Amino acid sequence: MITMIAAAGENNELGKDNGLLWHLPDDFKRFKELTTTHYIIMGRKTFESFPKPLPNRTHLVITRNKNYKKPGAVVVHSMEDALEISKNDSQPFIIGGGEIYKMGLPFADKIELTRVHGAFKDADTFFPEFSKDHWQLISKTEHAKDEKHKYSFTYETWIQK
């Protein structure tokens, strides 16, 4: 099962200048719980936004740059290559950014989407639109705004129909 995992605003905003638009500690915790021990597939800019590779995960980095090499990254040049390398993982995760999500959507079986309740006008990166005709919402968990979370949000799990 190939899963896309993302946090997106009400208008599918993901980030700006290769950073997030919000700080949601409980969402980070959930991301870690879901992705630990799995392959995580991302673009070069997403990989470079991490201070260091995330522990206990295999980082597959998609880039057009044939000479790109970084410690902690397995470099590939297409989504197909990334999926081939991760084929023995029961659930590789596509973790972004925007272009990588667009590339991954046709291959995905599941979307773990944290819908952040807010509109973020400064965003320059977006999660792709996906058709409710092809995807079914199977789970929804609300998380209220609190002292650690400036925005309320909802964990949504979608599967291909």
UniProtKB/TrEMBL annotation:
Its biological purpose: Key enzyme in folate metabolism. Catalyzes an essential reaction for de novo glycine and purine synthesis, and for DNA precursor synthesis.
Any one GO biological process: folic acid metabolic process
Family in the record: Belongs to the dihydrofolate reductase family.
Highest taxon listed in the record's lineage: Bacteria
This enzyme's EC code(s): 1.5.1.3
Key words, A-Z: NADP, One-carbon metabolism, Oxidoreductase
Species of the source: Aequorivita flava
GO cellular component: cytosol
Catalytic reaction equation(s): (6S)-5,6,7,8-tetrahydrofolate + NADP(+) = 7,8-dihydrofolate + NADPH + H(+)
Gene Ontology MF terms in the entry: dihydrofolate reductase activity; NADP+ binding
PROSITE patterns: DHFR_2 (PS51330)
Domain annotation DHFR: ranges: 1-160
Name the record gives this protein: Dihydrofolate reductase
Pathway noted in the entry: Cofactor biosynthesis; tetrahydrofolate biosynthesis; 5,6,7,8-tetrahydrofolate from 7,8-dihydrofolate: step 1/1
EC supergroup of this enzyme: oxidoreductase
InterPro entries xrefs: DHFR (IPR012259), DHFR-like_dom_sf (IPR024072), DHFR_dom (IPR001796)
One Pfam family here: DHFR_1
